[in-house]
Amino acid sequence: MVANKVDNNERQNSVYEFYNFGLEEVFGISSINGAGTGDLLDLMVSKFEDDEPIEDLGLPRIAVVGKPNVGKSSLTNALLGKERNIVTDISGTTRDSIDTRYTAFGFDMVLVDTAGIRKKSKVHEDIEFYSVMRSIRTIEDCDVCLFMIDGNEPIQNQDLSIFSVIEKNKKGIVLLVNKWDLIDKNTSSTKKYEEAIKERLAPFTDLPIVFISALNKQRIHKALETAMEVFENRTQKIPTSKLNEIMQEAIQKNPPPSYKGKYIKIKYVTQLPTHSPSFAFFCNLPQYIKDPYKRYVENQLREHFNLNGVPIRIFFRKK
Ligand SMILES: Nc1nc2c(ncn2[C@@H]2O[C@H](COP(=O)(O)OP(=O)(O)O)[C@@H](O)[C@H]2O)c(=O)[nH]1
Ligand SMILES: [Mg+2]
Where are the domains of the chain? Predict the structure, then answer.
C-alpha cells in the first residue's frame, strides 16, 4: 500500500536521524557503531514492518514517556484503576509498550505506557536493542506525549534527549512534573520550577506544564484534559485566508531583511496537509531567509494561533 510505504520511509528516516543525533548518548549503545550500521538499521526497520498494529480505531494516541522510575506506569495504573504487570525493576527484562483504550470521564483515547528508555553502558542482546527502539517507536506512533519528569530533581540530560525525540518527530507534548507530593511547597514554588525547566527546554517552550502526583492521583485527569487540548491544537487546520490576513500583517510590520541588495517578498502562506502543523511561505528568494527571521515567523504564528504543545514546521518556498 502506498500510504504504508510513506510511513515506513518516514520511520526509517527518523530512525537514522535519531541514530545520528545521539543514540549512543541516550542509550549507551556503542556496539552498533561502524560498518554495517546501515544494514542493521534496515534490518531493524524491516522487523518493525512485520509487527501488527495492536488497535487502529483512529482514536487519539496518548503515550506516557520518560526515563525509568519517573512514574509512567504509576500514572497509567492510577488512571486505569488497576495494577497491570508493566512495572519492572528486573534488569534486562524487556516489555512492549501497552495500549489501553481509556473511555472514562468523557475521554476516548488510547493510552500507551512505554517500557522505560534505559541508559546502559552496553547493550549486547538484540532483544534489548529492539526494546530500546520500541520506546522510540512509541513516540513515533503516538499523537501526543505525556512527557514525564521527576519533580524532585532538576531536569536531566536523559530527559532532554527524550524531549528531542518528541520534538524531532513533531509530536504533541505535555510536560508532566511528577512526584510533586514530595516537594516542600514552601521552598519551591511551581513558578520557579517552571522557569528553570523552560530555560533547559528552550527554544521550544510553548508547551503546557502540569504538576502531578501519580501516587496521590493529583491532577491526573487534568493531565489527560491537557493532552486532548494539545491533540486539538495539533490537528487544527487554519483557513488560508485567516492565516494570510494575520501573517501578512506580521510580515509587513517586520519584513525579511534584504540580502545583498535583493528585496525579499513573501507572497502568501498556506498550511500544508500534513499530520502535524506545517506552514509553507511562498516568496521570491527563499534561500535568503535566515534563521532569525524563521524564528520571528514561528513566534508570530504561536502568538496568533493556539499551537501550545505543538512543534511545527516552517518552509520557505520559491514562487
Ligand atoms: N512519591 C511519589 N512516588 C511516585 C509517584 N509516582 C511514582 N512513584 C514511585 O516511583 C517509582 C517508579 O514508578 P514507576 O511507575 O514504576 O515508574 P516508571 O519506570 O516510569 O514506569 C515507584 O516506586 C513508584 O511508587 C508520585 O507521584 N509520588
Ligand atoms: Mg513502567
Answer: 53-235, 240-318
Count, in order, helices (H) and strands (E) of the chain: 9, 9
Write down the CATH superfamily of domain 240-318: K homology (KH) domain (3.30.300.20)
Substitution site in 72, 74, 97 for ligand 1 pocket (most atoms within 8 Å of beta carbon): 74
Distance between Cα 112 and ligand 2 center (Å) = 11
The number of C-alpha atoms within 13 Å of 121 and in the hemisphere containing its C-beta is 0
pLDDT, tens digit, 9 for 90 and up, residues 190-249: 888 999 999 999 999 999 999 999 999 999 999 999 999 999 999 999 999 999 999 999
- CATH number, domain 53-235: 3.40.50.300
User: What pTM, to 2 d.p., does this model score?
Assistant: 0.78
Q: If 0-12 CB within 10 Å is exposed, 13-18 middle and 19+ buried, where does residue 272 land?
A: exposed
- List all residues whose CB is within 6 A of at least one atom of ligand 1: 66, 68-74, 87, 116, 178-179, 181-182, 213-215
157 close to 61: Cβ distance less than 8 angstroms: no
